[in-house]
Design goal:
The protein is of the alpha/beta class. The chain has one domain (2-177): P-loop containing nucleotide triphosphate hydrolases (Rossmann fold), CATH 3.40.50. The protein is built from seven helices and five strands, in the order βαβααβααβαβα. The protein has helices at 14-23, 32-42, 54-68, 80-90, 96-107, 135-150, 163-177, and strands at 2-8, 27-29, 73-77, 114-118, 154-158. The protein has a five-stranded parallel beta sheet, sandwiched between helices. Helix 1 (14-23) crosses helix 7 (163-177), helix 4 (80-90) runs antiparallel to helix 5 and helix 4 packs across helix 6. The longest helix is centred in the last third of the chain and has 16 residues, at 135-150.
């Protein structure tokens, strides 16, 4: 089982890339934070990201989705290392649940050590779950890089560009990383 992380700033185009990878037949796993936000907002909570349990809810959903994912190659929109970056960005301490999940994914080698880091597009469109200016994702991007490096991951840059080129770059990197079977 090969599990790849696709990460980057909010609004960098990760979801669009993930949808295309799904169409190409890769097993994909959607971002947990967006689902946690949508569920809370559907229940009338306008800004769930302001409560202390927000990070732990993301981590729990990420873990559930990771354990339920199928297929020999899986691409995840974010990982618990992103939750670590978010906690750092917000100035929150690493919770026991987040620390335990970071330890689990590290000790079990859950994700490939090369992370597909999607670079920002030069703008950020607000959504119900993303109420930020363009400057905020730039600061968050740097924290993301620092978090992944601190946990021993190698970042593979997916530069800004048109969607087809970015998808081809990601798909090519995954294909080159897969073990080759001998032909005879």
């Amino acid at each position: 089982m090969r599990r790849y992380v696709l990460t980057g700033t909010p609004g960098a185009g990760k979801t669009s890339i993930l949808r295309c990878l799904d169409e190409l037949g890769y097993g994909v796993v959607e971002e947990a934070a967006t689902a946690v936000i949508a569920q809370a907002q559907a229940l009338g909570e306008d800004q769930p990201w302001t409560r202390a349990s927000f990070i732990d809810e993301i981590v729990a959903l990420q873990r559930q989705r990771q354990l339920e994912a199928t297929g020999s190659v899986q691409v995840f929109d974010r990982s618990p290392v992103c939750a670590h970056a978010l906690a750092t960005y917000l100035g929150w301490p690493v919770s026991p649940a987040l620390a335990a999940e970071l330890e689990r994914i590290t000790s079990e080698g859950v994700y490939e050590r090369q992370v597909l880091f999607v670079r920002n597009l030069g703008f950020c469109e607000p959504t119900a779950a993303r109420r930020i200016s363009f400057q905020e994702p730039l600061a968050f991007e740097k924290i993301h890089e620092e978090s992944y490096r601190a946990f021993g991951y190698k970042l593979i840059d997916i530069p800004a560009g048109d969607l087809a080129h970015r998808v081809a770059t990601v798909s090519s990197m995954i294909a080159h990383a897969l073990p080759q079977t001998p032909t005879g």
